[in-house]
């Protein structure tokens, strides 16, 4: 996500590296590269021009402090303006009501039905709502079946009526069913078309008028770039939606839609889709996205994802086992499962400051844990509980049973021992105090390469 754009911003700011002051000449050179980067990312031309003009005015009006380099100051100004460009602050969806009614709109292929499921899953698991999904796409073959499959996946009920071919009456029936059966929220999945057409627009207008939703979302494929912004403008003129959902941001997207859409339609981006799994949905935070675009990571989102998977009782048990030096391969396996639930590895690593640059050109495989899991599953219960019993002959058997090599098994054994050692250090308050003292003696700086 935004990898190419981030690289181009890096190159643009290098113009100011080593400069003692911000001047009209070096700012103009930097912003020329920034504008080119934005246009190549498929950002709307007027948006790119206005953005660079604003940054230039702010940069030339600033005095560079001795503690701050021109490059750092320029990054800060650009970060603040990127945040404003994408909306400034996070905006919630309105799912309140009796029930709250969320209407989904967008073109066919934008990921509307899948996102309907993701949003249902989000509201169920994170907000504790009783959600009903409503299948109101009467045109696309198997659209109803798709929503039923999604609903079954996330454990959420789906309303459908295969006999009724009128989207307006279907939506009304779904809302009435939700009211009668104590649902807090009903999400209406509507039909899309391959292109904007009058029949489609008239139909979605009628559905909205009939059910009076508390929230209308426009779902758009981020990979369509500038076309996404133009389509959003057309939809907004007809149905006056409340917010935008950008899907497929995990793909090879240039990011232009995320940067342009707010300035063009003046409607906030509320969610982004970051993968195929039902959990691959993030609330959109403009400031955090600006951090990621400028290579600053997104530690807050990373911590939030970790907390979502955090099991307090399990953590207490694990802490006791670590203190007693009883951490074993069963615990190691459980920790891997927690990490996997947080999302795809490339996305997670991108949230760590500086990691995007360090991992440049390195392919991060989402299946990176498969061989480790296979090795652990090939161990006997005794071997998992007492890793010290795993001698060379047992390692050979484990390698054969897991379809890996002795080298792979030896590598995992070392990783396990290193993890165990680190966890014991982290669990020992005296060791933690020593580590903090050492860190302070180093001037609070991380070693090079970390």
Structural notes for this entry:
With 450 residues, the protein is α/β, with parallel strands linked by helices. Helix content is 56%, strand content 9%. The relative contact order is 0.09. The longest helix is centred in the last third of the chain and has 22 residues. Helix 2 packs antiparallel against helix 3. It starts with a helix and ends in a 9-residue tail after the last helix.
Question: What is this entry, summarized?
Answer:
The chain is α/β, with parallel strands linked by helices.
> What is CATH's topology name of the largest domain?
Rossmann fold
- What is the mean predicted local confidence, pLDDT? 77
- Tell me the distance between the termini: 23 Å
- Give the oligomeric state of the chains in this entry, treating copies of one chain as homo and distinct chains as hetero: single chain
Supply the CATH architecture of the largest domain. 3-Layer(aba) Sandwich
The total of beta strands comes to 8
Radius of gyration: 26 Å
Arrangement of strands in the largest sheet: 3-2-4-1-5-6-7-8
How many structurally independent domains? 3
Label the overall shape: flat
Assigned CATH superfamily of the largest domain:
P-loop containing nucleotide triphosphate hydrolases
Element-level helix/strand string: HHHHEHEHEHEHEHEHEEHHHHHHHHHHH
Give the count of helical stretches: 21
Q: What is the CATH first-level class name of the largest domain? A: Alpha Beta
- What structural class should be given to the helix and strand makeup? alpha/beta
> Which parts are unreliable, with pLDDT below 50 for 5 consecutive residues or more?
429-450
Relative helix content: 55-70%
